[in-house]
Write a structure and sequence with these properties.
heterodimer; A: 338 residues; alpha/beta; FAD/NAD(P)-binding domain; 2 domains; 5-stranded parallel sheet; 23 strands; 22% helix; 29% strand; elongated; B: 107 residues; alpha+beta; Ubiquitin-like (UB roll); 3-stranded mixed sheet; two-stranded antiparallel sheet; 17% helix
Chain lengths: 338, 107
Protein backbone atom coordinates (compact mmCIF):
# COMPACT_ATOMS: atom_id res chain seq x y z
CA UNK A 1 0.00 0.00 0.00
CA UNK A 2 1.48 3.31 -1.10
CA UNK A 3 0.41 6.34 0.96
CA UNK A 4 0.45 9.61 -0.88
CA UNK A 5 -1.18 13.05 -0.96
CA UNK A 6 -2.61 12.71 -4.45
CA UNK A 7 -3.10 10.02 -7.08
CA UNK A 8 -3.20 11.49 -10.57
CA UNK A 9 -4.95 9.42 -13.22
CA UNK A 10 -3.47 10.28 -16.60
CA UNK A 11 0.05 11.31 -17.58
CA UNK A 12 -0.91 13.70 -20.36
CA UNK A 13 0.12 17.38 -20.29
CA UNK A 14 -2.67 18.28 -17.86
CA UNK A 15 -1.77 15.54 -15.36
CA UNK A 16 1.93 16.38 -15.64
CA UNK A 17 1.45 20.07 -14.98
CA UNK A 18 -0.89 19.35 -12.08
CA UNK A 19 1.92 17.18 -10.64
CA UNK A 20 4.23 20.15 -11.03
CA UNK A 21 1.84 22.39 -9.15
CA UNK A 22 1.51 19.80 -6.37
CA UNK A 23 5.29 19.64 -6.11
CA UNK A 24 5.51 23.40 -5.91
CA UNK A 25 3.10 23.55 -2.98
CA UNK A 26 4.86 20.69 -1.21
CA UNK A 27 2.55 17.75 -1.88
CA UNK A 28 3.49 14.26 -3.08
CA UNK A 29 1.74 12.40 -5.84
CA UNK A 30 1.73 9.14 -7.77
CA UNK A 31 0.81 9.14 -11.45
CA UNK A 32 -0.98 6.23 -13.15
CA UNK A 33 -1.44 5.87 -16.91
CA UNK A 34 -2.82 3.15 -19.10
CA UNK A 35 -0.28 3.80 -21.87
CA UNK A 36 3.26 2.46 -21.72
CA UNK A 37 4.68 5.96 -22.04
CA UNK A 38 4.21 9.44 -20.61
CA UNK A 39 2.39 12.10 -22.64
CA UNK A 40 -1.22 11.04 -23.20
CA UNK A 41 -2.90 12.15 -26.42
CA UNK A 42 0.10 14.38 -27.24
CA UNK A 43 2.36 11.38 -27.54
CA UNK A 44 -0.13 8.81 -28.75
CA UNK A 45 -2.07 10.82 -31.32
CA UNK A 46 0.22 13.58 -32.55
CA UNK A 47 3.83 13.31 -31.30
CA UNK A 48 5.14 15.01 -34.44
CA UNK A 49 2.35 17.51 -35.10
CA UNK A 50 3.22 21.07 -34.13
CA UNK A 51 1.07 22.78 -31.51
CA UNK A 52 0.78 26.56 -31.86
CA UNK A 53 -1.26 27.62 -28.84
CA UNK A 54 0.84 26.92 -25.78
CA UNK A 55 1.33 30.33 -24.14
CA UNK A 56 4.82 31.74 -24.75
CA UNK A 57 5.76 28.72 -26.88
CA UNK A 58 5.16 29.77 -30.50
CA UNK A 59 5.49 26.23 -31.82
CA UNK A 60 6.27 22.82 -30.36
CA UNK A 61 5.39 19.21 -31.11
CA UNK A 62 3.44 16.92 -28.79
CA UNK A 63 6.67 15.12 -28.05
CA UNK A 64 8.60 18.29 -27.24
CA UNK A 65 5.82 19.51 -24.98
CA UNK A 66 5.80 16.19 -23.14
CA UNK A 67 9.59 16.14 -22.75
CA UNK A 68 9.59 19.68 -21.38
CA UNK A 69 6.89 18.85 -18.86
CA UNK A 70 8.79 15.75 -17.74
CA UNK A 71 11.87 17.94 -17.33
CA UNK A 72 9.84 20.48 -15.36
CA UNK A 73 8.67 17.95 -12.76
CA UNK A 74 11.96 16.07 -12.49
CA UNK A 75 13.02 17.80 -9.24
CA UNK A 76 10.06 16.25 -7.43
CA UNK A 77 10.91 12.61 -8.28
CA UNK A 78 7.30 11.55 -8.57
CA UNK A 79 6.56 7.91 -9.39
CA UNK A 80 4.91 6.89 -12.63
CA UNK A 81 2.87 3.72 -12.88
CA UNK A 82 2.60 3.11 -16.62
CA UNK A 83 0.73 0.37 -18.51
CA UNK A 84 -1.62 0.27 -15.56
CA UNK A 85 -5.13 1.51 -14.97
CA UNK A 86 -7.01 2.61 -11.89
CA UNK A 87 -9.78 0.11 -11.57
CA UNK A 88 -11.48 0.58 -8.21
CA UNK A 89 -12.01 3.40 -5.75
CA UNK A 90 -13.31 2.96 -2.24
CA UNK A 91 -13.78 5.60 0.45
CA UNK A 92 -12.77 4.74 4.01
CA UNK A 93 -12.50 7.32 6.82
CA UNK A 94 -12.19 10.21 4.38
CA UNK A 95 -9.38 8.47 2.49
CA UNK A 96 -9.61 6.99 -0.94
CA UNK A 97 -8.35 3.46 -1.39
CA UNK A 98 -7.27 3.07 -4.99
CA UNK A 99 -6.67 -0.26 -6.72
CA UNK A 100 -5.09 -0.71 -10.14
CA UNK A 101 -5.46 -3.43 -12.73
CA UNK A 102 -1.93 -4.66 -11.94
CA UNK A 103 -2.80 -4.94 -8.26
CA UNK A 104 -1.15 -1.78 -6.94
CA UNK A 105 -2.87 -0.09 -4.01
CA UNK A 106 -2.76 3.52 -2.90
CA UNK A 107 -4.20 5.36 0.10
CA UNK A 108 -4.80 9.03 -0.56
CA UNK A 109 -7.11 11.89 0.43
CA UNK A 110 -7.14 13.17 -3.17
CA UNK A 111 -7.59 11.81 -6.65
CA UNK A 112 -7.11 13.99 -9.72
CA UNK A 113 -8.66 12.56 -12.86
CA UNK A 114 -6.74 13.95 -15.81
CA UNK A 115 -7.84 11.16 -18.06
CA UNK A 116 -8.39 12.94 -21.38
CA UNK A 117 -11.24 11.15 -23.08
CA UNK A 118 -10.56 7.93 -21.22
CA UNK A 119 -8.00 5.23 -21.74
CA UNK A 120 -6.65 4.21 -25.10
CA UNK A 121 -7.66 0.78 -26.29
CA UNK A 122 -7.19 -0.89 -29.65
CA UNK A 123 -10.12 -0.63 -32.02
CA UNK A 124 -11.51 -4.08 -32.56
CA UNK A 125 -13.13 -5.79 -35.53
CA UNK A 126 -16.81 -4.87 -35.95
CA UNK A 127 -17.75 -8.50 -36.54
CA UNK A 128 -19.40 -10.24 -33.60
CA UNK A 129 -17.89 -13.60 -34.53
CA UNK A 130 -14.39 -12.22 -33.91
CA UNK A 131 -15.11 -11.81 -30.19
CA UNK A 132 -15.08 -15.57 -29.64
CA UNK A 133 -11.43 -15.73 -30.66
CA UNK A 134 -10.36 -12.44 -29.07
CA UNK A 135 -6.99 -12.80 -27.34
CA UNK A 136 -6.46 -16.30 -28.73
CA UNK A 137 -6.33 -16.20 -32.51
CA UNK A 138 -7.83 -12.75 -33.14
CA UNK A 139 -5.27 -10.26 -31.85
CA UNK A 140 -4.83 -6.48 -31.77
CA UNK A 141 -1.27 -6.42 -30.48
CA UNK A 142 1.62 -8.86 -30.55
CA UNK A 143 3.46 -9.96 -27.47
CA UNK A 144 5.14 -13.12 -28.75
CA UNK A 145 5.80 -13.31 -32.45
CA UNK A 146 7.06 -16.91 -32.32
CA UNK A 147 3.46 -18.19 -32.16
CA UNK A 148 3.03 -17.22 -35.84
CA UNK A 149 5.87 -19.38 -37.17
CA UNK A 150 4.72 -21.41 -40.20
CA UNK A 151 1.11 -20.27 -39.67
CA UNK A 152 -1.32 -18.45 -41.94
CA UNK A 153 -1.70 -14.92 -40.67
CA UNK A 154 -4.21 -12.41 -42.07
CA UNK A 155 -3.40 -8.82 -41.14
CA UNK A 156 -5.90 -5.96 -41.47
CA UNK A 157 -4.95 -2.28 -41.58
CA UNK A 158 -2.99 0.31 -43.54
CA UNK A 159 -0.85 2.05 -40.94
CA UNK A 160 2.65 1.42 -39.67
CA UNK A 161 1.71 -1.36 -37.24
CA UNK A 162 -0.03 -3.36 -39.97
CA UNK A 163 2.75 -2.81 -42.50
CA UNK A 164 5.63 -3.43 -40.09
CA UNK A 165 4.14 -6.67 -38.83
CA UNK A 166 3.28 -7.84 -42.35
CA UNK A 167 6.91 -7.29 -43.34
CA UNK A 168 8.32 -8.85 -40.18
CA UNK A 169 6.06 -11.92 -40.16
CA UNK A 170 6.50 -12.57 -43.89
CA UNK A 171 9.88 -14.13 -43.02
CA UNK A 172 8.36 -17.06 -41.21
CA UNK A 173 4.59 -17.06 -41.82
CA UNK A 174 2.15 -17.04 -44.71
CA UNK A 175 0.97 -13.44 -44.60
CA UNK A 176 -2.07 -11.86 -46.22
CA UNK A 177 -2.46 -8.09 -45.80
CA UNK A 178 -5.98 -6.70 -46.24
CA UNK A 179 -6.71 -2.98 -46.40
CA UNK A 180 -9.87 -1.04 -47.20
CA UNK A 181 -8.30 1.18 -49.89
CA UNK A 182 -5.28 1.31 -52.22
CA UNK A 183 -3.44 4.00 -50.29
CA UNK A 184 -1.58 3.26 -47.07
CA UNK A 185 -0.89 5.71 -44.29
CA UNK A 186 2.28 3.91 -43.15
CA UNK A 187 5.79 5.21 -43.78
CA UNK A 188 6.62 5.42 -47.52
CA UNK A 189 9.56 3.02 -47.14
CA UNK A 190 7.28 0.40 -45.57
CA UNK A 191 4.65 0.89 -48.29
CA UNK A 192 7.38 0.38 -50.91
CA UNK A 193 8.57 -2.79 -49.16
CA UNK A 194 5.01 -4.15 -48.97
CA UNK A 195 4.58 -3.60 -52.72
CA UNK A 196 7.85 -5.46 -53.41
CA UNK A 197 6.83 -8.36 -51.17
CA UNK A 198 3.48 -8.46 -52.94
CA UNK A 199 5.07 -8.33 -56.42
CA UNK A 200 7.38 -11.24 -55.66
CA UNK A 201 4.47 -13.15 -54.08
CA UNK A 202 6.01 -13.31 -50.59
CA UNK A 203 2.78 -11.85 -49.20
CA UNK A 204 -0.76 -11.64 -50.55
CA UNK A 205 -1.91 -8.05 -50.71
CA UNK A 206 -5.65 -7.50 -50.99
CA UNK A 207 -7.02 -3.97 -51.09
CA UNK A 208 -10.55 -2.55 -51.13
CA UNK A 209 -11.72 -5.36 -48.89
CA UNK A 210 -12.70 -5.43 -45.24
CA UNK A 211 -13.56 -8.16 -42.75
CA UNK A 212 -16.95 -9.85 -43.01
CA UNK A 213 -16.73 -12.86 -40.75
CA UNK A 214 -14.33 -15.22 -39.01
CA UNK A 215 -15.03 -18.92 -39.13
CA UNK A 216 -13.86 -21.90 -37.21
CA UNK A 217 -14.87 -24.90 -35.24
CA UNK A 218 -13.38 -24.38 -31.83
CA UNK A 219 -10.20 -23.03 -33.35
CA UNK A 220 -10.04 -20.38 -36.03
CA UNK A 221 -9.98 -21.72 -39.58
CA UNK A 222 -10.66 -18.90 -41.99
CA UNK A 223 -11.64 -15.30 -42.40
CA UNK A 224 -14.19 -14.04 -44.91
CA UNK A 225 -13.61 -10.63 -46.45
CA UNK A 226 -15.92 -8.45 -48.49
CA UNK A 227 -15.61 -5.64 -51.00
CA UNK A 228 -18.01 -2.72 -51.03
CA UNK A 229 -19.68 -4.00 -54.16
CA UNK A 230 -20.53 -7.21 -52.33
CA UNK A 231 -17.90 -9.68 -53.57
CA UNK A 232 -16.47 -11.90 -50.91
CA UNK A 233 -13.46 -14.16 -50.47
CA UNK A 234 -12.50 -16.72 -47.88
CA UNK A 235 -8.89 -16.91 -46.73
CA UNK A 236 -7.42 -19.67 -44.61
CA UNK A 237 -6.24 -18.21 -41.32
CA UNK A 238 -4.67 -19.50 -38.15
CA UNK A 239 -4.41 -15.96 -36.81
CA UNK A 240 -6.18 -12.71 -37.66
CA UNK A 241 -4.54 -9.44 -36.64
CA UNK A 242 -6.29 -6.06 -36.65
CA UNK A 243 -4.39 -2.76 -36.53
CA UNK A 244 -6.94 0.05 -36.69
CA UNK A 245 -5.35 2.42 -34.23
CA UNK A 246 -6.63 3.26 -30.79
CA UNK A 247 -9.98 4.44 -29.53
CA UNK A 248 -10.66 6.12 -26.24
CA UNK A 249 -12.93 4.45 -23.72
CA UNK A 250 -14.05 5.98 -20.45
CA UNK A 251 -13.67 2.55 -18.83
CA UNK A 252 -13.93 2.13 -15.06
CA UNK A 253 -14.21 5.92 -14.45
CA UNK A 254 -17.89 5.57 -15.37
CA UNK A 255 -18.45 3.28 -12.38
CA UNK A 256 -17.20 5.48 -9.55
CA UNK A 257 -20.46 7.26 -8.85
CA UNK A 258 -19.34 10.53 -10.43
CA UNK A 259 -21.85 12.76 -12.16
CA UNK A 260 -21.35 12.39 -15.88
CA UNK A 261 -22.40 14.57 -18.79
CA UNK A 262 -21.97 12.39 -21.89
CA UNK A 263 -18.35 11.32 -21.53
CA UNK A 264 -17.27 14.25 -19.34
CA UNK A 265 -17.32 14.98 -15.62
CA UNK A 266 -18.95 18.21 -14.36
CA UNK A 267 -16.77 20.15 -11.90
CA UNK A 268 -16.90 23.45 -10.07
CA UNK A 269 -14.50 26.04 -11.40
CA UNK A 270 -13.16 27.05 -8.00
CA UNK A 271 -11.05 23.95 -7.45
CA UNK A 272 -12.26 21.48 -10.10
CA UNK A 273 -13.71 19.10 -7.55
CA UNK A 274 -16.38 16.70 -8.76
CA UNK A 275 -19.53 15.68 -6.88
CA UNK A 276 -17.31 13.40 -4.78
CA UNK A 277 -15.22 14.99 -2.04
CA UNK A 278 -11.51 14.65 -2.79
CA UNK A 279 -12.00 13.66 -6.42
CA UNK A 280 -11.01 16.34 -8.90
CA UNK A 281 -11.25 16.30 -12.69
CA UNK A 282 -9.14 18.42 -15.03
CA UNK A 283 -8.34 18.63 -18.74
CA UNK A 284 -10.46 17.21 -21.55
CA UNK A 285 -12.42 14.97 -19.22
CA UNK A 286 -13.96 17.78 -17.15
CA UNK A 287 -16.77 20.07 -18.15
CA UNK A 288 -18.14 23.39 -16.92
CA UNK A 289 -19.77 26.42 -18.55
CA UNK A 290 -17.32 27.83 -21.07
CA UNK A 291 -15.00 24.80 -21.05
CA UNK A 292 -12.39 24.82 -23.82
CA UNK A 293 -10.57 21.59 -24.64
CA UNK A 294 -7.19 23.29 -24.83
CA UNK A 295 -3.95 22.25 -23.18
CA UNK A 296 -3.62 25.73 -21.67
CA UNK A 297 -7.01 25.34 -19.98
CA UNK A 298 -5.83 22.04 -18.55
CA UNK A 299 -2.80 23.76 -17.04
CA UNK A 300 -5.00 26.32 -15.30
CA UNK A 301 -7.37 23.63 -14.09
CA UNK A 302 -4.46 21.59 -12.71
CA UNK A 303 -3.07 24.56 -10.79
CA UNK A 304 -6.41 25.16 -9.06
CA UNK A 305 -7.08 21.47 -8.42
CA UNK A 306 -3.65 21.21 -6.75
CA UNK A 307 -4.69 23.93 -4.25
CA UNK A 308 -7.96 22.04 -3.74
CA UNK A 309 -5.94 18.92 -2.87
CA UNK A 310 -3.88 20.85 -0.32
CA UNK A 311 -6.93 21.37 1.89
CA UNK A 312 -7.49 17.60 2.32
CA UNK A 313 -3.83 16.57 2.36
CA UNK A 314 -2.83 19.14 5.03
CA UNK A 315 -6.06 19.81 6.93
CA UNK A 316 -4.19 21.50 9.78
CA UNK A 317 -2.12 23.82 7.64
CA UNK A 318 -3.12 26.95 5.84
CA UNK A 319 -2.19 27.18 2.20
CA UNK A 320 0.00 30.20 1.52
CA UNK A 321 0.24 31.64 -1.97
CA UNK A 322 3.81 32.14 -3.17
CA UNK A 323 5.62 33.01 -6.39
CA UNK A 324 8.37 30.73 -7.73
CA UNK A 325 10.47 33.83 -8.40
CA UNK A 326 10.50 34.87 -4.77
CA UNK A 327 9.88 31.92 -2.46
CA UNK A 328 12.94 30.22 -0.97
CA UNK A 329 10.74 27.28 0.12
CA UNK A 330 9.73 26.67 -3.48
CA UNK A 331 13.31 27.02 -4.66
CA UNK A 332 14.32 24.36 -2.11
CA UNK A 333 11.62 22.05 -3.44
CA UNK A 334 12.90 22.62 -6.95
CA UNK A 335 16.46 22.01 -5.80
CA UNK A 336 17.51 25.39 -7.18
CA UNK A 337 20.85 26.61 -5.86
CA UNK A 338 21.49 30.31 -5.80
CA UNK B 1 -27.09 28.68 -42.66
CA UNK B 2 -27.85 25.19 -43.90
CA UNK B 3 -30.45 22.62 -42.99
CA UNK B 4 -28.61 19.37 -42.29
CA UNK B 5 -30.36 16.04 -41.87
CA UNK B 6 -28.70 13.51 -39.56
CA UNK B 7 -29.97 9.94 -39.75
CA UNK B 8 -29.07 7.52 -36.99
CA UNK B 9 -28.20 3.91 -37.78
CA UNK B 10 -31.63 2.83 -36.53
CA UNK B 11 -33.31 5.20 -38.97
CA UNK B 12 -34.21 8.00 -36.53
CA UNK B 13 -34.01 11.32 -38.37
CA UNK B 14 -32.91 14.66 -36.92
CA UNK B 15 -32.84 17.99 -38.67
CA UNK B 16 -30.82 21.00 -37.56
CA UNK B 17 -30.23 24.50 -38.86
CA UNK B 18 -26.49 24.85 -38.66
CA UNK B 19 -24.80 28.23 -38.91
CA UNK B 20 -22.21 28.83 -41.61
CA UNK B 21 -18.69 28.24 -40.39
CA UNK B 22 -19.58 25.48 -37.95
CA UNK B 23 -18.78 21.90 -38.87
CA UNK B 24 -21.45 19.27 -39.51
CA UNK B 25 -20.05 17.59 -36.38
CA UNK B 26 -20.59 20.73 -34.27
CA UNK B 27 -24.12 20.98 -35.66
CA UNK B 28 -24.85 17.55 -34.20
CA UNK B 29 -23.14 18.14 -30.86
CA UNK B 30 -24.77 21.53 -30.26
CA UNK B 31 -28.19 20.11 -31.02
CA UNK B 32 -27.70 17.00 -28.87
CA UNK B 33 -28.08 14.70 -31.85
CA UNK B 34 -26.86 11.22 -30.90
CA UNK B 35 -24.57 9.10 -33.05
CA UNK B 36 -21.60 11.44 -33.33
CA UNK B 37 -19.08 11.31 -30.48
CA UNK B 38 -16.29 13.67 -31.60
CA UNK B 39 -13.95 12.61 -28.80
CA UNK B 40 -11.09 14.83 -29.93
CA UNK B 41 -13.29 17.89 -30.36
CA UNK B 42 -12.72 18.40 -34.08
CA UNK B 43 -8.97 17.90 -34.43
CA UNK B 44 -9.13 15.12 -37.02
CA UNK B 45 -7.40 12.82 -34.59
CA UNK B 46 -10.02 10.34 -33.40
CA UNK B 47 -12.43 9.19 -36.17
CA UNK B 48 -15.47 9.27 -33.85
CA UNK B 49 -17.47 11.80 -35.91
CA UNK B 50 -17.62 9.41 -38.84
CA UNK B 51 -20.62 9.69 -41.20
CA UNK B 52 -21.66 8.25 -44.56
CA UNK B 53 -22.83 10.41 -47.42
CA UNK B 54 -25.16 7.97 -49.15
CA UNK B 55 -26.17 10.33 -51.94
CA UNK B 56 -23.50 10.13 -54.65
CA UNK B 57 -24.20 13.57 -55.99
CA UNK B 58 -23.78 15.12 -52.54
CA UNK B 59 -20.62 13.12 -51.89
CA UNK B 60 -19.04 14.56 -55.04
CA UNK B 61 -20.26 18.06 -54.26
CA UNK B 62 -18.58 18.20 -50.84
CA UNK B 63 -15.16 19.82 -50.52
CA UNK B 64 -12.49 17.18 -51.13
CA UNK B 65 -10.83 15.38 -48.26
CA UNK B 66 -7.70 17.01 -47.00
CA UNK B 67 -4.56 15.04 -46.36
CA UNK B 68 -5.02 12.92 -43.29
CA UNK B 69 -8.79 12.49 -43.37
CA UNK B 70 -8.61 9.14 -45.17
CA UNK B 71 -5.82 8.02 -42.84
CA UNK B 72 -8.06 8.77 -39.91
CA UNK B 73 -11.03 7.07 -41.59
CA UNK B 74 -8.96 3.86 -41.80
CA UNK B 75 -9.34 3.83 -38.03
CA UNK B 76 -13.09 4.45 -37.99
CA UNK B 77 -15.84 1.90 -37.38
CA UNK B 78 -16.76 0.29 -40.73
CA UNK B 79 -15.42 2.93 -43.10
CA UNK B 80 -16.66 2.87 -46.71
CA UNK B 81 -15.76 4.80 -49.82
CA UNK B 82 -18.54 7.31 -49.03
CA UNK B 83 -17.24 7.93 -45.49
CA UNK B 84 -16.35 11.39 -44.22
CA UNK B 85 -15.34 12.86 -40.90
CA UNK B 86 -18.10 15.32 -40.08
CA UNK B 87 -15.64 17.64 -38.28
CA UNK B 88 -14.08 18.33 -41.68
CA UNK B 89 -17.35 19.35 -43.35
CA UNK B 90 -17.67 23.07 -42.81
CA UNK B 91 -21.20 24.37 -43.22
CA UNK B 92 -22.03 27.03 -45.82
CA UNK B 93 -25.20 27.84 -47.74
CA UNK B 94 -24.00 25.31 -50.32
CA UNK B 95 -24.53 22.49 -47.84
CA UNK B 96 -28.24 23.29 -47.37
CA UNK B 97 -30.15 20.02 -47.70
CA UNK B 98 -27.20 17.70 -46.95
CA UNK B 99 -28.08 14.36 -45.40
CA UNK B 100 -25.53 12.36 -43.41
CA UNK B 101 -25.98 8.83 -42.11
CA UNK B 102 -24.35 7.77 -38.89
CA UNK B 103 -22.62 4.38 -38.55
CA UNK B 104 -23.87 1.75 -36.12
CA UNK B 105 -21.41 3.08 -33.58
CA UNK B 106 -18.37 5.32 -33.35
CA UNK B 107 -16.15 3.39 -30.93
Amino acid sequence: MIKTDVVIIGAGPTGLFCAHQLGIIGLKCEIVDNLDKIGGQCIELYPEKPIYDIPAVPKCTGEELTNNLIEQIKPFNFNFHLSDRVQELKNENNKWLVKTLNGKEFETPNIVIAGGVGSFEPRKFPTKSAEKYDGKSVLYSIKDKTIFKDKSVVIFGGGDSALDWAIELSNSSKVTLVHRRDEFRGAPASVQKIKELSDNKTIDLITKYSIKDVKGNGSLESVEIKSESGESKVIKADYVLGFFGLIMQLGPIAEWGLNLDKKTIPVNTENFETNKKGIFAIGDICTYPGKLKLILSGFHEGALAARGCFKYARPDEKYRFEFTTASSTIKDRLGVKE
Amino acid sequence: MAKIKYIEFNGTEHEADVANGLSVMEGAIQNDIPGIDADCGGGMSCATCHVYINDDEWFRKLPEKEMGEDDMLDQAFEPKSNSRLSCQLIVSDDLDGLTVHMPEKQV
